Amino acid sequence: MTHEKHYVDWLVGQSMLKAARDRARLYSGQSRQWMHPYAVGRPRDAIAAASVWLTVYPDAIITEEGNSVLQALGNEKLWQGLSEIGVQGIHTGPLKRAGGLSGRNQTPSVDGNFDRISFEIDPRYGSEAQLINLSRIASAHNAVTIDDSIPSHTGKGADFRLAEMAYGDYPGIYHMIEIKEEDWTLLPDVPEGRDAFNLTPAIVDELREKHYIVGQLQRVIFFEPGVKETDWSATGPIVGVDGRIRRWVYLHYFKEGQPSLNWLDPSFAAQQLIIGDALHAVDVLGARMLRLDANGFLGVERRMSGTAWSESHPLSVTGNQLLGGMIRKVGGFSFQELNLTLDDIAAMSQGGADLSYDFITRPAYQHALLTGDTEFLRLMLHQMHEFKIDPASLIHALQNHDELTLELVHFWTLHAHDIYMYKGQTFPGSILREHIREEMYERLAGEHAPYNLKFVTNGVSCTTVSIITAALGIKDLGLIDESDRSLIQKIHLLLVMYNAMQPGVFALSGWDLVGALPLSAELVAEMMLDGDTRWIHRGAYDLADLNPKASISDHGMPRAKSLYGSLSSQLENPDSFASMVKKILAVRQSYAIAASRQILIPDVVSPALLLMVHELPAGKGIQITALNFGPNPLTEVLHLPGISPGPVVDMINERLEGDLTENGEMTISLDGFEGLSLRIVNRAPSM
Prior knowledge:
Helices cover 29% and strands 19% of the residues. By secondary structure, the protein is α/β, with parallel strands linked by helices. Among the domains are: 5-31 and 155-251, no CATH class; 358-595, Alpha-Beta Barrel (TIM Barrel); 596-680, Golgi alpha-mannosidase II (Immunoglobulin-like, Sandwich). The strands form 8 sheets. Strands 1-2-7-13-14-15-16-22 form an 8-stranded parallel barrel, surrounded by 5 helices. The protein has a 6-stranded antiparallel beta sheet with strand order 23-24-25-30-27-28. The longest helix is centred in the last third of the chain and has 19 residues, at 482-500. The mean pLDDT is 95.
């Protein structure tokens, strides 16, 4: 039997593709398309718009009784505090409806609202009017709102259900392939209560041999035995709008409920859907910037042998140019959260996103903290320059909603056989990668830090604070005393300085501001049934003391134990974490460090020392970020060739530290885990 027409019409009305096509008609033939340059990325214009970001996670926000998450984020008291410390943008995380549809009933999100099914705001978080009001409140405090575009997949909403029913060009949205009935014996039965089942590698190989699909991909993200062993799943029998019964196999780089989009189908339906969603975020919801989530996975292609070509694919570059260009064309900016090789980050920034998340040095600076040795961090900084990636094009961040990724993809794929010098020896990239990963896993999780949990094969679920406690050898978070808390705060500020005192965007999270510890696994056990341990580091928090007695967020996240307290309470104490961040960011803003140019990563004698040398704009001199990632004091003579001599000033504490000599030498001393921001003041020319 065919589906009832009113149900199909209802699905079409719910679909993102229809909403995107309706929105496109508002732009076609209109002059506003030509008001902004769009061909190339403009990272320095983007950081001029907002160079300090707060990242929040909607499910973790504690609200006033009866109020929504969006009302909490638009609270005037909160924004007074954020403005005071120097926040210029708030990245809300995905707020639109997500999950799937079963008949007319919505099913929950399987990945923290990263499985979008609608342009509408998820009513669990508030209303469209409240999000627009948040944008206006932020603007009143000289800040912008930052939203999400998800160009690689959707959830299993109306668009996917219409695709399963072979309606119109909806199947062209996805990487989905109809399997002939005579080959259904190859497919597993779908268990009762499920709408799809993951395929084994053997079945994927067989379907490839029969020329149905491109085969296994280069890696299986979220690999979990018995849950996700490949990136392909099969549906059960589906009745189409034409009355035919079909079974489909579909690609999902991520979870089963996140079907991947086909960016090169003759219908170009996926592009219409995603660009329409982005235009809606900018024009209707007031976002100034958009994150392009998982934007490196837009191309997949069969190879003659071996795994399919699914990373570093040129279609990803082309797709990002289309999406990034469209966002710029209507006056916005975008950034990519791209955990791939440096080659990919550089290539996809050419006409694609304006900014990139700093997956280049994020695991490396954590490695420096865990080992007290900055050599791998300096190697990655040099690699960044070798690939001509401007640090001003990067978002240098503390904790976000995801795990601390330890994939180190750069050394795993294209550069597995390249030779690197490390610790006085040469290593192929693949061996260096395994060495770094082993060191970090050993210190970050397991018996040394049982409160942090491995996240499948990707990395470790943890907060910034629990990385620090692991580095300090603290095994029981319940035994942290005041001296421990003080040292943790000092190291946390060291990491703030690493990220903030270099060109580009500095991002910190609500979890960082309150000093959140991870939740015990028992509290979120039900959320982790599919192996997703990230829930332990997504505990609830209340930045503005909106509901101090609440023990959970509106969305069921238990309140995280925090070491620092709310933002509001911290700003009353000049020695608090937030007050010290405010002091650091004031110096960053005064000297436009975000817009500076990184000119040197000097060699050092002390293993724990990191130096970054920057040329400040507007003739303000040379700035040096000096950081001691170890517990012991150090003194070192710096050699800075080509830098004009002059007095050296501690920019944060406003005191004279000495002089850079005529031959480019100066001596610095740092306590354990201390950071300095130094400025070499240009001497006035002699008369």
